[in-house]
Design brief:
homodimer; alpha/beta; 7 strands; 50% helix; elongated; DNA-binding
Chain lengths: 285, 285
DNA sequence: GCTAATTTAGAATAAAAATTCCAAAATCAC
DNA sequence: GTGATTTTGGAATTTTTATTCTAAATTAGC
């Protein structure tokens, strides 16, 4: 507006630096939106209404959505303090996937500092566990879970298979089923190798295994499948070998701390599954 | 549900059409993952573990993340039935915005639907687990934890005692100690009732028990104490019977859902303890 | 209503990304 | 082992996308 001196022109204050988070971005947007020129305001409104699109769209797509020219988008980005659209998009993208902290490197850092107290380690596991649990709600498909409950409720006997790091999960399932009077067998892998003799076509198997997959678990499960038993798999990724045999898959992604994980998510899924089945089979529980 | 034979000549079956949703994409991925060549399988595993990255990454970034060449990514996309990466990414991007309702809002929605659905129950356990973990940091005394690590690091052999709902905890400890080459014995309570014969004065016992306390656990632990062994107790309240015998107490208060609990806190404490002891005894781990 | 300053649209250019191609390795069948 | 076939790595190419530039249009001041 009023030009006092060359360079002053602080009315525009264009020399701002880029927002560090989407939160301060939207804050700044709200504060300055109505002093923006027409097209820029128009675009501002658009992304305020569709913030989720920024991370996955091109300049052209956003421009089209807001009914402005691509160059208007560029001007907008610069007005907000970014060098260009790419920088702004980077912010939106990182903001989205920021919830994948790397506990392994955090632990390594912790060790370097020498501050390797057991409490610090515990804190890491607690954090990893909380994130894993939060994640669990998105990785487990509700339909698959419902289907698993159906299948297990119909089964004559439920067999649990899972060794090494998966064994705590199966043993807890065994405890829960026993407490609720659901006929269930925990396969220890020691004495009863010939499990094809105990599994019947009307039975179901809960197989728990994580990469690297235990051979014995896959073996036993495959044989049970061949017998005609239904399989419910608690595993980590879809590419798990259990996918091949058409198991009902319940996916758990657990964060590691060093070489170990807290198993929080896996145990929670297991107990929820068990209790669902228990109350279904025996409603007065 | 055994695959019909004809047309099984799917050695290559590259003539498939592109998956219409990410669900069928992952289904197909699970079914074909293990007949893929090495690098393609490697990439398949990567995106199975990081599905959320696909929408917001470039070919080069994903390739780097999976440690393969960009061209391998292209071959993978085509193998899965897409014309190329761009088409595949388009699919993931359209799914992207549906994931935006974050954990908190999804949970709230699930709750107000009330419902007896397994998912709702799972949500309950997840919430209980998260709270329990949060609590854990305040209920566990850092000094006691440090002392427990000291004692266990000195022990000749570590014995784990815990049954019923505590058994998942002890069995996970057993797994962890074995993996870290720490001499440890898991007492199953079945075969070795005469454990006073295996426990030596220089040994230590980790006793895990929650109210109502299992008689056998208290018995065995008391006898071990009489032998002169050190005792580390993972239990729920200070008034636990283990207090009497001068055990080092690590307290965990776990929230119940109905008659069950998710064991998240107990497992986290156990694994932190085990890893601390393991790295102390064998620093190069 | 005329002039000066801003803003805009659209084309031109630069940068980045996807995709293809092919020689070298690796694997497989015999 | 030998030859045929598949798979791989990396560079070359094409396509897409971001960014800049400029003339035309709009707006504001007088």
């Amino acid at each position: 507006m009023i030009e006092a001196k060359p360079g002053a022109s602080a009315t525009k204050a264009t020399e701002r630096s880029a927002p560090a988070t989407t939160e301060v971005f939207f804050e700044r947007l709200g504060a300055t939106a109505d002093q923006l020129p027409k097209r820029l305001k128009q675009f501002a409104d658009f992304i305020a209404a569709n913030p989720d699109r920024v991370a996955v769209s091109t300049v052209a797509e956003l421009a089209e959505g807001a009914n402005v020219q691509p160059s208007a988008v560029m001007r907008f980005c610069q007005e907000m303090g970014f060098s260009g659209f790419s920088q702004m998009q980077k912010l939106f993208r990182s903001d989205y996937s920021q919830k994948w902290p790397d506990y392994a490197t955090r632990l390594a850092k912790l060790r370097e500092q020498g501050a390797e107290s057991p409490s610090a380690l515990l804190a890491e596991f607690v954090e990893a566990g909380r994130s894993s649990l939060e994640n669990l709600m998105t990785t487990v498909d509700p339909k698959a879970l419902q289907e698993a409950v159906d299948v297990l409720s119909r089964a004559e006997t439920i067999h649990m298979v899972g060794f090494r790091r998966a064994f705590p999960v199966t043993s807890y399932l065994a405890y829960a089923f026993e407490k609720m009077d659901v006929p269930a067998v925990l396969h220890s892998g020691i004495a009863n190798i010939n499990m094809e003799h105990v599994i019947r076509p009307n039975d179901a198997v809960i197989a728990v295994t994580f990469a690297p997959y235990t051979e014995l678990t896959l073996d036993m499960t495959t044989k049970a499948r061949a017998m005609g038993a239904d399989i419910v798999a608690i595993t980590d990724v879809v590419t798990s070998p259990l996918a091949r045999i058409k198991a009902i898959q319940l996916l758990v992604s657990e964060f590691d701390v060093g070489d170990f994980r807290a198993l929080s998510a896996s145990l929670s899924l297991a107990i929820a599954l068990a209790v669902s089945v228990g109350t279904r089979r025996n409603p007065n529980l």
